[in-house]
Every structure is written in C-alpha cells, then in structure tokens.
Amino acid sequence: MGATFLARLITDIAHSRTGIDIHPGAQIGGSFFIDHGTGVFIGETTVIGERVRLYQAVTLGARSLPSDAQGALIKGNRRHPISETDIVIYAGATVLGRVTIGRGSSIGGNVWLTHDVPPGSAIPQAHSRTTGRNE
Q1: Are 62 and 41 within 8 A, CB to CB?
Q2: Which pairs with CB-CB distance under 8 Å and at least 24 residues apart come from 76-81?
Q3: In DSSP terms, which residues pair with 60 in a beta bridge?
Q4: What value does the mean pLDDT of the chain take?
Q5: What pLDDT, on the 0 to 100 scale, is given for residue 128?
Q6: Disulfide check for 80: which of 13, 18, 45, 71 has CB 3.0–4.6 Å away?
Q7: pLDDT in tens, 93-125
Q8: What's CA 61's distance to the chain center, in Å?
Q9: pTM confidence score
C-alpha cells in the first residue's frame, strides 16, 4: 500500500514484544499459526499458503545474494521459500532460498533445508551414523 516505513515500524514493535520477525513484504495465507514464536524469522519474499504451522526458532530465509560479472550484488530477486498449503515446520528448522515445500508436507525439527520438497513429504531430523540417534 506504499506505507513501507509504517509497516516496518509496526513489525519492529511486534518483534520486540514477541521475538517474531516477519518482513512486511511476506505473503501469508489464512489460518497461519505460530506456536511459541520466539526466534521465528520470515523473509521479505516468503510466500506462505493456507493452514501453515510454524514452531519456535524457524527461519524462512534467503541464501546469499548472487553477484554479476563485476562482483556487484544483484538485488530484487525472490530469494525466500514458498510454503504451500497444510504444512508443518517444527522447531529450529531452517529453510533457505527460493525452495518450494509442497502441499501437506512436514519438516522436522532442526532440519536444514535448501531444496524443493515434493507434496506429501516428511523430512525428518538427520539420523546420526555414529550414535544411531536423531540429532
């Protein structure tokens, strides 16, 4: 709506009270839910569909900016994730880059995700080869 300063001011006030940082440029669908939101970050070009649930310390962020042949950073690209409908992203998960999490998927706690996830997927926490436990 063109009121970028006001939007950013309101976002900063909300962040100081909740620990949740949602860029005002993010697109968020209905029935969006954040549980125990401290440490949640949602980047500017993030797209979140309907009925998406996030838990504490989830990052929906960008990877580094690309550069041109002269080394200057290229800005303006959509660099944040797309979460389709009916997604759950558990505590501590980090999703980076313009990746798509397909409808009905679940992303486990502490997962580091930098690739697309097909619809209906369950991405578990990494399994350690040395201890046999999830870490």
Answers
A1: no
A2: 78/45, 79/43, 79/45, 80/26, 80/42, 80/43, 80/44, 80/45, 80/46, 80/47, 81/43, 81/46, 81/47
A3: 42, 95
A4: 91
A5: 58
A6: 45
A7: 999 999 999 999 999 999 999 999 999 999 998
A8: 5
A9: 0.84
Nearest residue to 99 (alpha-carbon basis) of 89, 90, 91: 89
What is the number of other CB atoms lying within 10 angstroms of the CB of residue 76?
7
Q: Which of 98, 105, 101 is nearest to 43 (CA)?
A: 98
84, two tokens: 């389709």
Place of tokens 């949640």: 40
For residue 14, give Cα distances in angstroms to 8, 20, 22, 23, 69: 10, 7, 9, 11, 40
